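Quiz preparation item.
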């Protein structure tokens, strides 16, 4: 009996021994956000400032960040967790922030992926160095109720539009940057597009998404471009290493330096993937609930918006983003949509969709030891190559011990094959 009571007490102490976020902290605390998507998060950062929050997206990405992560997270955990912990600790040690009035924000998907448990590891790391710093959870699954970032309907809608605008800017930029006649022309347009979006948020016209995206597309379309063929390289994989320059050793920059066009699937695909998984649960397990009904309505609204955006791109010089329903059909060729751990069926779906739209060269970025990524990503490569004979895929592991040189050399080998394939096709055409 005593042993049972002691266990219960210890469990309670462990669970409760961390600082909480309180609503009154909003006016006095700075909130640090780990970087993942440079343009999306830049919009969200400015958006949250408009809501009265003092937020900052961290940009520290030196080796010191990884070293700090290694000090506080065991090397069997996910590389994205190590990176985010390292960013937090490195930033707090920098002396730039009042650690007594600083909090950190971390998202939680609420699924079976270990990412849902990052917060406990972050708290453990902070307890060793900065025990006074609270951790906020950004989630829509009812997790961390005593430390959840408050999101009302109005703010949620703004975040949805921010994702669509970030996707549009990223998509246009990647189809402009490799071909720009004047250096930095695409960067200048990107900055102007960001200012346009924020101006709309400030003036309350952010919901006029069709007009805004038409303006974004027109701005990038006006950039003078070289007419030449580039190797197009898709980037898929675990969401953090797919998007984060820290997580993938600046993969997009490397591909640009190799005279390639990076093709990065949009963030809204992941949002729709999460919503569809909730709906699929109802079909697969016979669930009927208000939650599933709400997700069906949400999917209908988001997908309709996506189709409207696709129409805008089809009337432009740019390749349109993928229709999510097409992604689902692509997934069905390879993997059942019940495989939803981590990025699950979305990874082979994106690889198939890329191949069907002319992007046959693909980097599948995966954190070392990420089981869902290795099964749904690396494990599906043979099936995908059987379906798409010309698909050229390289799976690249990212972890603290993997050297950037080795990663880039593997990608260079893939690019060499890609250039040979282009030369062969051009020769056959002649």
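Solution:
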């Amino acid at each position: 009996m005593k042993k049972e009571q002691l266990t219960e007490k210890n469990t309670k102490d462990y669970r409760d021994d961390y600082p909480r976020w309180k609503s009154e902290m909003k006016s006095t605390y700075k909130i640090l956000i780990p970087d993942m998507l440079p343009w999306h998060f830049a919009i969200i950062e400015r958006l949250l400032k408009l809501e009265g929050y003092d937020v900052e997206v961290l940009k520290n990405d030196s080796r010191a960040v990884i070293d700090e992560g290694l000090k506080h997270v065991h090397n069997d955990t996910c590389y994205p967790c190590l990176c985010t912990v390292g960013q937090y600790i490195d930033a707090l040690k920098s002396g730039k922030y009042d650690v007594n009035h600083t909090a950190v924000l971390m998202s939680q998907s609420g699924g079976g992926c270990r990412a849902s448990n990052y917060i406990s590891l972050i708290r453990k790391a902070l307890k060793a160095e900065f025990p006074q710093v609270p951790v906020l959870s950004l989630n829509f699954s009812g997790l961390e109720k005593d430390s959840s970032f408050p999101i009302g309907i109005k703010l949620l809608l703004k975040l949805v539009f921010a994702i669509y605008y970030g996707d549009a800017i990223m998509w246009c930029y990647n189809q402009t940057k490799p071909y720009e006649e004047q250096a930095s022309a695409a960067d200048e347009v990107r900055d102007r597009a960001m200012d346009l979006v924020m101006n709309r948020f400030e003036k309350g016209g952010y919901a006029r998404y069709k007009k805004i995206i038409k303006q974004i597309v027109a701005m990038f379309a006006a950039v003078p471009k070289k007419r030449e063929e580039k190797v197009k390289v898709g980037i898929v994989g675990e969401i953090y290493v797919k998007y984060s320059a820290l997580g993938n050793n600046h993969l997009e920059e490397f591909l640009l330096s190799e005279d390639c066009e990076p093709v990065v699937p949009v963030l809204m695909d992941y949002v729709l993937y999460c919503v569809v998984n909730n709906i699929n649960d109802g079909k697969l397990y016979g669930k009927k609930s208000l939650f599933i009904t709400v997700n069906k309505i949400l999917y209908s609204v988001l997908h309709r918006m996506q189709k409207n955006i696709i129409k805008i791109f089809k009337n432009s010089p740019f390749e349109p983003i993928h229709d999510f329903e097409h992604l689902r059909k692509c997934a069905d060729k390879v993997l059942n949509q019940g495989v939803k751990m981590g990025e699950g069926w979305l990874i082979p779906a994106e690889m198939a969709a890329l191949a069907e739209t002319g992007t046959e060269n693909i980097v599948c970025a995966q954190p070392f030891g990420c089981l869902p990524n290795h099964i749904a990503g690396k494990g599906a490569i043979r099936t995908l190559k059987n379906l798409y004979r010309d698909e050229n895929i390289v799976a690249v592991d990212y972890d603290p011990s993997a050297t950037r040189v080795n990663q880039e050399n593997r990608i260079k080998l893939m690019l060499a094959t890609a250039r040979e394939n282009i030369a062969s096709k051009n020769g056959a055409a002649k």
